[in-house]
Amino acid sequence: MEYKAVKGTRDFLPIQMQKRNYIFNTIISVYKSHGFLQIETPAMENLSTLMGKYGEEGDKLLFKILDSGIFLRQEKFSSFENTITEGHINKAASMICEKGLRYDLTVPFARFVVNHQNDIVFPFKRYQIQPVWRADKPQKGRYREFYQCDADIIGSNSLLNEVELIEIISEVFSRLKLNVTIKLNNRKILSAIASVIGHQDKITEITVAIDKLDKIGLEGVTKELLDDGFTTEDIEKLTPILQIKGTNEEKITLLSEFLATDEQGKKGIEELQFVLDKCRIAQINNVEFDITLARGLNYYTGAIMEVKANDVAMGSITGGGRYDNLTGIFGLKDVSGVGISFGADRIYDCLEELGLFPEEVKTATDVLFINFGEKESERCLSLAKQLRLAGMSCEIYPDSAKMQKQMKYANNRNIPFVCLLGETEFQNNTIVIKNMLSGEQQTIEQKEIVEWFKK
């Protein structure tokens, strides 16, 4: 029998972990440089915490955890059977599932803030790197278990927070050498568009449909809107907005005319213009206003952003936005926040496809000491300790196997340097260092080994 990982999940080999950690460490280093603090939350949350926060489609993708123990008591099981028999499937599900795996890191973060509001300092700048789970259909760039790398600023209404998060996005992808476009929009603008065409009550249907424009095209979006009860006249009003082209300024000018009578729309445009102006001052030149960017999550209230890789076919690799009262659903009113989330798995796939991982990422060990026997390996123990204290990673081959086998191990592990300390070197207090890439080797005194590698 073949035992495979669950579909949509993966095992990670050492080389893959080295590449993943390169991404994580790059993101963390940028987060820290902006003063963000790390937190963690549990993998499981109560379903009452998660349900209703991601829209109807999101709720369907929640992994629910089957209760055990108390559920097996006869009286509860009998009640469950009766509920199933009566056809109340959703009610029955709630009877056997009280917990679920987290869908993202933002809703658990909102719960965290409410629970720990007296333990943190506002505005609170947090980062969190942990896995999330979605009961989605696996496909390229879409997994059932994947890591998110979140950063949020909560407890401040300032739009400078949006600018800082965009700056973080720009810095991360610059360090990763990945060419991207940062797409920006504002949910106030989307709400205003719904209002202007006379369907403020259907903002969710409009945003969900608009968000799919890249995937299903204008014809597909039109069909979805018609199915949702919009008229042909409604869609004719909406179509020019969906087809806005030009520079950021040209798009804003056209949109300002369309929303001239809507106060919420004017507020959204004002916020958008502020962020774009500050990004220009910060010399972030790859920010694009995209009116079709909607992001399906219900909790966004202001700026929304998404990042696309320019040189590889891939969905969004980073996303986020402003949520003005997410903590309100947990009892803490009027606490505004804004956040982003890097999709580490998709970023990995992009870097892999484009060959952008540095060669040194493949190297976990800097130096391998060849094992010539007991007394020689004892000397190597001392030298290896010196190198480790100097910040290098090194190991001693555990057995005095044939030279060919030990060298093959070094090659297969991509170890760049091999140290040879045999009988002659033992007697002369020397050591031979071989560069595995060039094939060159040099004999030095053992006491000089740390200085040699420092140079």
Question: Would you write up a description of this structure?
Answer:
- The structure is a single chain.
- The protein is α+β, with helices and mostly antiparallel strands and 455 residues long.
- It has two domains: 279 residues, 2-Layer Sandwich (BirA Bifunctional Protein, domain 2), CATH 3.30.930.10; 91 residues, Rossmann fold.
- It is built from 18 helices and 16 strands.
- The strands form three sheets. The chain has an eight-stranded mixed beta sheet. A five-stranded mixed beta sheet has the order 13-12-14-15-16.
- It is elongated, with a radius of gyration of 28 Å.
- It starts with 13 loop residues before the first helix and ends with a helix.
- The mean pLDDT is 90.
Number of domains: 2
Q: For the record, what is the CATH homologous superfamily label of the largest domain?
A: Bira Bifunctional Protein, Domain 2
Secondary structure class reads: alpha+beta
**What is the CATH architecture annotation of the largest domain?**
2-Layer Sandwich
Helical element count? 18
